[in-house]
Amino acid sequence: MKKILLLLAGQLRTFDFKNVQKSWKKFSQTFDVTTVGCFWDNRGCSLYPSEVDNPDEVLDIDYVKAKLQTEYVRLFNYAGFLNNLSDCFKPYRDIKYFSASISSSFLRYHVKESAIHHAAMGYYCLPDFDLVISTRPDLIFFRQLPDYCFNQQTFWHQNMPPAYYPDRIYDNLMMSSVDNIFQLCNFHFDEDINIQCIEKPSHNGLILMDPCRIYYNYMQHYGAEIKSLDCHYAEPYREAGDIQKFSQSYLHGKGLWGIE
Fold first, then answer.
1. Domain with 46 in it: what CATH number?
2. Least confident of 23-27, 43-47, 221-225, 256-260
């Protein structure tokens, strides 16, 4: 069974909904998974239609650990994050997708630091993992991951029709080696480079603070070999209608692997 280090970061949103839980359970039964997570302490909600009724609900850390089946969880306060925001990011604070890019990159940095800390404590050995995945806790899988994505020299993501854009890293599901994913997670505090990646002129129709554009610029700067998977394997789950939508859009009406 292949060993995966799963780094989850962002808002928790629908992470404890039945279909999401079922999908993560099947994922964990298919692979030997070690999960590390850093999240905002409120549930949060999507910019898109969602079943989340109370986005301001503050979640108990033990509840989050139990649902994700891991002890490696940290929760952060979003207001505290904004109060301590680096001066380099303050000009971007009111621009669309600021939260999706800058606040998420803050959590990605801390989930990387948590993973390093727990490895140093002897709970696991980083070189033993066959793959490292950086993603979000509200994900649902359509298909089982393909064997070729365990080629750790490549930085894998999902970028194909019907949601293709050139020169981006679709940040919903990113997979590679420890070194590549940890490099991505360094973005937030890599202040000599990150503003260059934000300000680099866009040519692909994505707006200034779109994290997909920024992360591509960042990983390209560090020489990563960026490739797309052959098809979509997972997307965030927001509402019940997503099951049928994913089935029709990506699987020609077939059932989703994660909830079969």
1. 3.90.550
2. 43-47
How much helix, strand and coil, in percent to the nearest 5, is found in the chain? 40, 20, 40
Q: Specify the DSSP class assigned to residue 60.
A: P
Q: Can you give 229-256 as a three-state secondary structure string?
A: CCCCCEEECCCCHHHHHHHHHHCCCCCC
- Residue 87 and residue 3: Cα distance in Å, rounded? 39
Residue 162 has which token pair? 């019907």
* C-alpha distance from residue 72 to each of 42, 58, 127, 175, 206 (Å): 18, 19, 18, 20, 34
Task: Say how many domains are in the chain.
Answer: 1
Residue with tokens 């630091």: 113
Q: Is the pLDDT of residue 57 over 90?
A: yes
CB 4 within 8 A of CB 129: yes
User: Pairing mode, if any, of strands 131-135 and 225-228?
Assistant: unpaired
13 is in which domain, residue-wise? 3-259
159 Rama class: left (phi>0) / alpha (psi -120 to 50) / beta: beta
- Is residue 85 classed exposed, middle or buried when 0-12, 13-18 and 19+ CB atoms within 10 A define those classes? middle
Q: Helix or strand or coil: residue 26?
A: helix
